[in-house]
Amino acid sequence: MYERRTNEPPSIPPPPRGTIGSNRPPSDVRIGDFIYLAGAYQRVRDMRSAGTAAHRVLIFAGREPWIMREPRVTYRPIDFR
What we know:
Low-confidence stretches: none
Radius of gyration: 15 Å
Number of strands: 6
Helix content: under 10%
Distance between the termini: 56 Å
Strand order of the largest sheet: 1-6-2-3-4-5
Shape: globular
Mean pLDDT: 88
């Protein structure tokens, strides 16, 4: 009989349309980027420094601020200029 695997990582939904993913350090994150947090893609609305360029406090709409301390995959809207 077939047994379902329970140790598989949960699937991540596809990134937002019109974006391109890249592994960026906190110093390279921009307002408007998307970051996958708590099961959903959150768009950065504002941000401030958390002491150094290696740490950023990211502010989202409808979610508490989050401190980015290490490089992470972010999705940036594609610029068609």
